[in-house]
Amino acid sequence: MKRAVEIIAIVLVLLATVLHVRAAAQAHEPVSAKIVSAKSVYLDNETGFEAVGVAAVTELKKWRRYKVITRRDKADLVFVLSAEPYDYPDPANKRQDGNFEGDPIRIHHRPARAYLTIAEPSTGEELWTDSRQWGGLLTGFNSAGRRLIVNLRKKMEK
């Protein structure tokens, strides 16, 4: 019994160390020059929850670094909020308005994580990504998008 407790303690320490190293490495990843020099963004809310996108847009406007516009094809960057990791869009599915074909994500429950991916609008190339716990009673159920924008802002203002 004592041996099992020791093994569990060792595993927990190793896991905590790996997570700490991973978080530290992510914190020091540089932000792309394209992100720094951009002036306008289009926010694509693919979470399935309108309030998450509204909170993210509100935070972007509060920051006042980027102009939030309503046409993807006119934006310097696309901020994709999603409940799943970003997947490059297939250029063959591109419609005339600059958006991509496909069903929107339909989510009937709150996902575990929210993702913010910054992409090049013309190619869909991923320039930067981050994810956060979805949110809850203490942080607000729809706070994930806002918190991801706050994290990006902190990273860029370092």
Task: Offer a few descriptive terms.
18% strand; alpha/beta; Rossmann fold; elongated; five-stranded mixed β-sheet; single chain; 37% helix; 5 strands; 158 residues
Short account of what is shown:
The chain contains four helices and five strands; from the N terminus they run ααβαββββα. The chain is α/β, with parallel strands linked by helices and 158 residues long.
Choose one word for the global shape: elongated
User: From the coordinates shown, what is the CATH architecture?
Assistant: 3-Layer(aba) Sandwich
Mean pLDDT: 80
Structural class: alpha/beta
Largest sheet: 5 strands, mixed
Number of domains: 1
Question: Which fold name fills CATH's third level, the topology?
Answer: Rossmann fold
Q: Which blocks of ≥5 consecutive residues have pLDDT under 50? A: 24-28, 95-108
* H/E element sequence: HHEHEEEEH
Instruction: Please tally the β strands and state the result.
Output: 5
Number of helices: 4
The percentage helix is 25-40%
By CATH reckoning, the class would read: Alpha Beta
Rg (C-alpha, Å) = 18 Å
| Beta-strand content estimate | 15-25%
N-to-C terminal Cα separation, in Å? 48 Å
Lateral arrangement of strands in the main beta sheet? 2-1-3-4-5
What does this structure look like?
The model is unreliable at 24-28 and 95-108 (pLDDT under 50). The protein is an alpha/beta fold and 158 residues long. Helix content is 37%, strand content 18%. The protein has four helices and five strands, in the order ααβαββββα. It has helices at 2-27, 33-37, 50-63, 144-156; strands at residues 40-45, 67-68, 77-82, 113-119, 126-133. It has a five-stranded mixed β-sheet with strand order 2-1-3-4-5, covered by helices on one side. It has a single domain (33-156), classed as Rossmann fold (3-Layer(aba) Sandwich), CATH 3.40.50.
